Amino acid sequence: MVPRIPRGQLLTELRSETDLSTAEFLGHLARLVPLFVKKQVRHKVVDIPSHRTIRYYQQTGVIDPCSGPSRLATYSYRHILQVLVAKLLQSQNLTLRKIVEVTRTSRNESLERVLLSTGDSFDVVTPSSSSLVPADVAALPAKAGVGRRDLAGESLWRKFEVAKGLELHVEESFEGADHFGIISGTVLDILARLALGEEMSRERSDHPMIASGSDSSPGPIIALVTEGGLVPLGNPDHLEPLRARRFLKYRIAGMNNLAAGRYESVDRGWDNQHVNADPNRLLPVDVMAEMEQSELMFRVYDYFYTTTGVATTVEECQELAESIAGELRAQDVSAVIFTST
Predict the structure, then answer these.
(1) Pick from 77, 71, 80: which is nearest to 32 by CA?
(2) How large is the angle between the packed helices 96-105 and 77-91, nearest 10 degrees?
(3) Considering Cα of 319, then 322, then 324, then 330, what sign does the dihedral take?
(4) Is residue 263 pLDDT above 70, yes or no?
(5) Does residue 61 sit in the same domain as residue 88?
(6) Are 323 and 247 in contact (CB under 8 A)?
(7) Are residues 20 and 108 in the same domain?
(8) Residue 300: pLDDT band by 50, 70, 90 thresholds?
(9) What values do phi and psi take at 110, rounded to 5?
């Protein structure tokens, strides 16, 4: 009888892999996916990833970009972990957005812990950076050892800095969290009254609280998309400055503008110094926030999408556009403002 090799040992043996060819990469996945993901015939989540699947994962940001041109692409141990975790979380019915948040912002050690967890309990992955959630919004882990319902998003929390020394933790499923300005104003108003010794009344509030539910959405949703390569300063997710084969998205919910010094354009096809001085020139978050707060009944989508257009082929542009459009349709986005350079 052939001895059963522990799954942890299988991963340990691959840690030094850095230059796997496409065939070698897919070969490892064919061997490992059935060992880490329970078979679910209905959803076919254990189907062995193909080259086309890997391209889709790169375009949607599930895995890091590969090294080298497509024909000579090489992959690493981290790519193996990202695909395995993506398949595992897919079997737990997580959305693509949730999967991306885990696979792209987690260290290898955290990805290994997810894969090696036993039973129906999984270790919550703590992102190693807030690159997918810039500015003052970041994902917080729930309690360690939660069940699959929690891993599916119901116990993930977002952190808001209401004031210096004061943070507001809001469950991510609470739709009103996107109206951070109103909520934080209410919190500060309550604290100010308590500090003055005023007696609080449950009916009294100068700030309208946002109720959870679809009725709170003010009309159509408008998304912001750019091919100007706008990313957080330092390009933490390594968006290609030319010949981009993927897009990224970053959270702007609750933001009134894109602060100078926190974003930059990495596109090499044009002079971007003026955009770097004021990112709102490329992506009009400031104007949209002002209009959103006026009597115009619409809402700006929580994320902006970005890629670079220089030297990208027409076919690749079409694939990127279809992927972005598919995500936006799924989120009931009504219109898109697309900025080009």
Answers:
(1) 80
(2) 150
(3) negative
(4) yes
(5) yes
(6) yes
(7) yes
(8) very high
(9) -70, -40
Q: What pLDDT sits at residue 93?
A: 74
- Kindly report the CA angle at 316 between 21 and 243, in degrees rounded to 5? 70
Please identify which residue in the block is written with the tokens 């349709």: 329
Residue with the two structure tokens 């390569």: 229
Radius of gyration of the chain (CA): 22
Which structural domain, as residue segments, surrounds residue 249? 217-339
From 61, 85, 116, the end of a domain falls on 116
Q: How far apart are CA 186 and CA 191, in angstroms?
A: 9
Taking only the tens place, the pLDDT of each residue in 319-338 is 888 889 888 888 889 999 99
Burial class (CB in 10 A: 0-12, 13-18, 19+), 292: middle
* Residue 226, burial from CB neighbour count under 10 angstroms (0-12, 13-18, 19+): buried
Query: 212 near 174, Cβ under 8 Å?
Result: yes
In 3-state terms the chain splits into helix, strand, coil percentages (rounded to 5) of 40, 15, 45
252 within some domain: yes
